[in-house]
């Protein structure tokens, strides 16, 4: 036997599936927090057995790339729980930290908006369109403001085509959701705020549709500078009801108020 030549091990189907899913995660095609299709559907789409799919998902779970969803299913890991908890405690401990987070978010999202305008695929632009149409539809309940805002900004994040950026957002995890809720229900909660946000979101959306990177970056900066300026003016206390929020039921109250 010639020692220069080594036997090449056969790769299991499960290993190939895990490699393919990891490629999709690394490229950002599978985003943090996204729920995977069920085992049967994945098996049908990939032309393999459910046993192989299950084994591949176990590999990725062990490596921390996916986790099980309560009630069934699998989701791309959004963030390590320890990071989320530590960041949440840090933000809650001092309002200045919340301002810093808003400032960091401003710089990141201006960059992402430019990238989305320049690189978004037709499918990604269609997703931004969908979220914008939803958030501006007549009769949309006010309790959906924060969720709609998050979906719009996450669609832009995905359209940036940066897996690194998506995973940076995943580290923010629930804190970002709570921050957006605090922004929409406490910090910028008046009807005039809602109107201004709608105009700013439209400017961002229009610039991305036009593939104008400079305009998209400028529109995003204008939007997030509005929010940042409110933090600098002084956010309302957590137990101080914001204008227009008194009619919300306890079930509709945003968890983001705890960030104030």
Topology of helices and strands:
Elements: H1 13-27, H2 39-46, H3 50-63, E1 66-68, E2 74-76, H4 81-93, H5 95-119, H6 122-135, H7 145-159, H8 163-187, H9 191-209, H10 213-233
Antiparallel strand pairs: 1-2
Helix pairs in contact: 1-3, 2-3, 4-5, 4-8, 5-7, 5-9, 5-10, 6-7, 6-9, 7-8, 9-10
Choose one word for the global shape. Answer: elongated
Number of helices: 10
Elements, N to C (H/E): HHHEEHHHHHHH
Distance between the termini: 71 Å
Which parts are unreliable, with pLDDT below 50 for 5 consecutive residues or more? 79-84, 235-260
Structural class: mainly alpha
CATH superfamily of the largest domain: GntR ligand-binding domain-like
Indicate how many domains the architecture comprises.
2
Largest sheet: spatial strand order: 1-2
Largest sheet entry: 2 strands, antiparallel
Text of the CATH class of the largest domain: Mainly Alpha
User: What is the name of the CATH topology of the largest domain?
Assistant: Four Helix Bundle (Hemerythrin (Met), subunit A)
> What is the CATH architecture descriptor of the largest domain?
Up-down Bundle
Instruction: Provide the β-strand percentage band.
Output: under 5%
What's this, in brief?
The chain is mainly alpha-helical. It has helices at 13-27, 39-46, 50-63, 81-93, 95-119, 122-135, 145-159, 163-187, 191-209, 213-233; strands at residues 66-68, 74-76.
Describe the structure.
The protein has two domains: 13-76, Winged helix-like DNA-binding domain superfamily/Winged helix DNA-binding domain (Arc Repressor Mutant, subunit A, Orthogonal Bundle); 81-259, Four Helix Bundle (Hemerythrin (Met), subunit A), CATH 1.20.120.530. It starts with 12 loop residues before the first helix and ends in a 27-residue tail after the last helix. The longest helix has 25 residues, at 95-119. Helices cover 65% and strands 2% of the residues. The protein is built from ten helices and two strands, in the order αααββααααααα. A hairpin with a 5-residue loop joins β1 (66-68) and β2. Strands 1-2 form a two-stranded antiparallel ribbon. With 260 residues, the chain is mainly α.
């Amino acid at each position: 036997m010639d020692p220069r030549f080594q036997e090449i091990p056969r790769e299991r189907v499960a290993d190939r599936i895990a490699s393919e899913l990891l490629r999709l995660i690394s490229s950002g095609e599978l985003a943090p927090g996204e729920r995977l299709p069920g085992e049967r559907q994945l098996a049908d789409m990939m032309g393999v057995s459910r046993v192989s799919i299950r084994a591949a998902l176990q590999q990725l779970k062990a490596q921390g790339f996916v986790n099980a969803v309560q009630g069934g299913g699998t989701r791309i890991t959004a963030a390590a729980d320890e990071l989320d908890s530590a960041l949440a405690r840090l933000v809650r401990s001092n309002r200045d930290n919340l301002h810093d987070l808003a400032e960091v978010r401003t710089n990141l999202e201006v960059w992402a908006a430019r990238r989305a305008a320049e690189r978004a695929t037709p499918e990604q632009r269609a997703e931004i369109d969908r979220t914008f149409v939803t958030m501006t539809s007549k009769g949309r309940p006010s309790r959906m403001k924060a969720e709609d805002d998050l979906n719009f900004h996450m669609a832009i994040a995905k359209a940036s085509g940066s897996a690194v950026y998506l995973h940076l957002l995943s580290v923010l995890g629930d804190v970002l959701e709570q921050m957006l809720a605090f922004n929409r229900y406490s910090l910028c909660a008046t009807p005039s705020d809602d109107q201004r946000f709608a105009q700013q979101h439209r400017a961002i959306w229009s610039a991305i549709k036009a593939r104008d990177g400079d305009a998209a970056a400028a529109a995003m900066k204008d939007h997030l500078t509005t929010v940042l300026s409110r933090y600098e003016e002084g956010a309302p206390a957590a137990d101080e009801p914001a204008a227009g929020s008194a009619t919300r039921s306890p079930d509709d109250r945003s968890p983001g108020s705890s960030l104030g």
